[in-house]
Write a structure and sequence with these properties.
Bound molecules: zinc ion
CATH topology of the largest domain: Hemopexin
Number of helices: 8
Helix content: 25-40%
CATH superfamily of the largest domain: Hemopexin-like domain
CATH architecture of the largest domain: 4 Propeller
Strand content: 15-25%
Number of domains: 2
Distance between the termini: 8 Å
Length: about 400
């Protein structure tokens, strides 16, 4: 299955109190502590935070300011950091700056894993994590406490967390005395009052829709890469067939992909190909737009919602993903059971259902079913898996068919 691997986390402040933000690659999800689930419409692009430099591509760690720095959030990346103002929703002037300004011990001046503020009797302190070590910082003195770095084992984390964490975030609401360490697909809940780790568990099932939507976002990013490879080639083919000029990409690959996934034979006359290709082009463009505006369609569905949506199989297990045409693309707990390329294929598959009214359940022929080889051109032109496998075929230069038949990839 795709690993969660969150890279940074931050509690919302000001008007965003009660929310937590989880950052992975160039996207972030928002968790609502009152609803106790990740919010629909996410993930969104980190670029929306208007951080500077390459912070939009990913961040390493994030921390809220305390004392005179209250109302600020700090984002760390590489050897730099940006200071963000919660009330103006903007990065302060003159950032990014170098992490050396924090005067942390050697080794903590770049590539941090995580950061969090202390609570209870540790109030006024911030903790920075890197590899198997951490540093305690004092907001009032504006300096690291002496005697650090110390070993991560001091936190009582399970052994596999002690080589380094992905991120850490404080709880809110009913969970306000807790800190949560994340690593891979797991989290460890720490209690500031008892100064001990209380539980270690899978994120899936315990943080509803956090894994599901984060994975859907990564799938979207991969699907967009496939689309960006395939779409210009379809456009170029239409143009070359219309004008009689030569096709500027790999003709043999294109012929093979069209025949395999859309049943359009190499030998078909140009005039006939030109009746079909615009349908493919229009669907790809609509799918591309749908994924670029996934905030309008992506939803996480807990089991009871999937049941009421009829998004469950005969045994009552939710479908990993299901779509209502022009309404929503829905992701459930079982989506997390699949590998990253399979998830990307599912996201792209669902987005064809989302945009094409003719891509109905009755016209849904999986790439691993016998029917895939015998479907007609008209069926193929409205078959979600045809778009997924065609785009992959052009992207990888061969017929890969990443999807449900290759569930772990
Ligand atoms: Zn389908």
């Amino acid at each position: 299955m795709a690993s969660l691997d969150i890279q940074a986390a931050l509690e919302g402040k000001g008007k965003y109190l009660g929310k937590s933000y989880f950052f992975k690659e160039n996207q972030y999800t928002r968790y609502d502590w009152t609803a106790d689930r990740s919010e629909d419409g996410y993930p969104l692009e980190i670029d929306l935070w208007d951080l500077k430099s390459s912070f939009g591509d990913s961040v390493n760690a994030a921390l809220n300011g305390k004392g005179v720095y209250k109302g600020k959030a700090y984002f760390f990346k590489g050897d730099s950091y940006c200071r963000y103002n919660w009330s103006t929703d903007k990065v302060d002037a003159n950032y990014p700056m170098k992490i050396t300004a924090w005067k942390l011990p050697k080794g903590f001046e770049s590539d941090l894993d995580g950061a969090v503020n202390g609570k209870g009797r540790f109030k006024g302190k911030a903790y920075f994590f890197k590899g198997g070590e951490y540093v305690r910082y004092d907001w009032l003195k504006d300096a690291a406490d002496p005697g650090y770095p110390k070993n991560l084992s001091e936190w009582g984390l399970p052994a596999h967390f002690q080589s380094g964490i992905d991120c850490i975030v404080n709880g809110q609401g009913a969970y306000k005395n807790k800190a949560y360490f994340f690593k891979g697909d797991e989290y460890a809940r720490y209690d500031w009052n008892s100064d001990s780790v209380e539980a270690v568990a899978k994120v899936v099932g315990n943080w509803p829709m956090l894994t599901e939507l984060t994975n859907a976002g990564s799938g979207k990013a991969q699907a967009l890469e496939w689309l960006v490879a395939a779409m210009p080639q379809v456009k170029a083919l239409i143009s070359s067939l219309s004008s009689g000029t030569s096709f500027p990409h790999n003709q043999a690959l294109m012929d093979d992909a069209l025949e395999t996934h859309f049943k359009i034979p190499k030998t078909m006359k140009a005039a006939d190909k030109l009746k079909h290709l615009p349908i493919i082009q229009a669907n790809f463009e609509a799918v591309h737009q749908a994924l670029l505006s996934s905030h309008k369609s992506f939803r996480g569905r807990i089991l009871s919602e999937a049941v009421s949506d009829r998004g469950v199989d005969t045994s009552g297990n939710p479908f990993p993903a299901y779509t209502w045409h022009v309404h929503s693309m829905n992701f459930t707990r079982t989506f997390a059971n699949f590998g990253p390329l399979c998830q990307a294929a599912m996201v792209l598959h669902e987005s064809v259902h989302f945009v094409d009214v003719k891509a109905t359940a009755a016209n849904d022929f999986y790439e691993h079913s016998p029917k895939y080889a015998t479907m007609s051109i008209v069926e193929a032109l409205h078959n979600p898996s045809s778009y997924v496998c065609f785009a992959q075929h052009l992207f990888y230069g061969k017929d890969e068919r990443f999807g449900a038949a290759r569930p772990n990839l």
